[in-house]
Amino acid sequence: MTFEELGLLPELLKAVSDAGYTEPTPIQAQAIPVVIAGKDVMGGAQTGTGKTAGFVLPLLQRLARHASTSPSPARHPVRALILTPTRELAMQVHESVQTYGKYVPLRDLVVYGGVDIKPQTEALRKGVEIVVATPGRLLDHVQQKSVNFNSVEVLVLDEADRMLDMGFIPDIKRILAMLPKERQSLLFSATFSEEIKKLADSMLKAPVLIEVARRNAVTETVTHRMHPVAQDHKRQLLAHILKTSSLQQVLVFVGTKFGASRLAVYLDKQGIEATAIHGDKSQQQRTEALEAFKSGKARVLVATDVAARGLDIDDLPHVINYELPHVPEDYVHRIGRTGRAGKEGDATSLVCPEERGKLAEIEKLIKRPIEQVLVQGFEPGPDFDAAADRGRRGRGGAGRSERGESSREKSAAPRREPRGRSDETRDRPARRVEPAKPKLPKLDFDPSKPYEPKVSPQGTATPEPKRAHHRPKRAVPALLGGGPKADSEKS
Ligand code: AMP
Known about the structure:
Elements: H1 10-18, H2 26-36, E1 41-44, H3 51-63, E2 80-83, H4 87-100, E3 108-111, H5 118-126, E4 130-133, H6 135-144, E5 154-157, H7 160-165, H8 169-178, E6 184-189, H9 194-203, E7 208-211, E8 222-228, H10 234-243, E9 250-253, H11 257-269, E10 274-277, H12 283-295, E11 300-303, H13 305-308, E12 318-321, H14 328-335, E13 345-351, H15 356-366, E14 371-375, H16 384-393, H17 407-411, E15 427-429, E16 454-455, H18 476-479
Helix pairs in contact: 2-3, 3-4, 14-15
The protein binds adenosine monophosphate.
């Protein structure tokens, strides 16, 4: 399959070729013709699959007929609205609009909070056809009457599941109510909960379901390993790994915003260039952190799951889970950044006794045991297995609360080097510890299954198999330090 065969305009083909793409990704091959045909889409795909070009290219094609060089604002009404949950994603999608649309004279704008609203207002007043926005700031513009939706032809809701997690659905509904009924709507989501399906029902007309497998189905090139370690020694172990290896561009995941900043400062003090990205950082700081990481100025980017979501970092070779995620699926999202396009990648997890239950859930999800490797001088002690049982029985007990730091971490930041620490990391295989078997949610997909595209031929969404479990609601707002409105990642 080639981009030419998808029926794209020469201006778009040229932009795609400039971007260096030789063939469409599976989601692009499926979505582009459907969107060009003007149909609604319910897309099951996450960042990294090429989904952005999958909707931006056909959207540009549909709007190309409106391209006008007239300076009159009346000739540039908002025709397409792309909503994203985070500022970073909004910026990235906007970049894609500019990249793919560079030979199509349509105006585009990105609108998000945390920055001065005035330049956005001015740009909106001058007229702009494609607006990429986070919902909160867009509603600010609605209130200011700087934006009018009467001419909107296409609506895209990107990462709808994150919108839900972040409490944006009421805002989305308010925006939907203002749009013309006659329009094309595209909804993309990595997961389809009942709530997302309800939202899809309310905004999509006879949608075509387009799905690509989650990335864990294709990341066979990723090496997974875990180092058992006491909670109190985690940061020394991390510094040790970074100092004794030549790993470059390492994305380190932590559970809390506070933890992210603190860890980056610690690593810096250890002589390891690190920067953090999370919801309490200003937009400027987040952009700078990302730039520093991408350019190689910072060797390590410490991130929370939410802040890292949607980051477009190609071919990231190393992911370290300083803390395991609360929801096992997030492990898949995290490691999805490595081992792309058949390249080698590795995912290392530092697992303290209290996290053994989470580890077992992850192993079950990815359907493979994760190799356990003890690092000499950082062994967790004999209570590792016993604590795992405690951790499984009472997750709240000695574990980490989602809202903040664990009691253990608060009171016991490591003050001493661990016993018998050697300067060399001498890995040796740990005794095989049988993965624990907690009661696990049933998955609505088979993570070991190879990629299988699925487009409903009738042009209707195939109902998702009913989930037999209630997936624990992600406490994303809590992670961000408050209720949905207090969340600084919102705008
Ligand atoms: P996305 O899932 O849209 O965030 O895209 C992930 C990455 O894939 C981005 O860096 C894109 O530039 C890149 N990409 C998108 N489409 C293609 C393609 N057809 N071939 C190669 N890379 C692509």
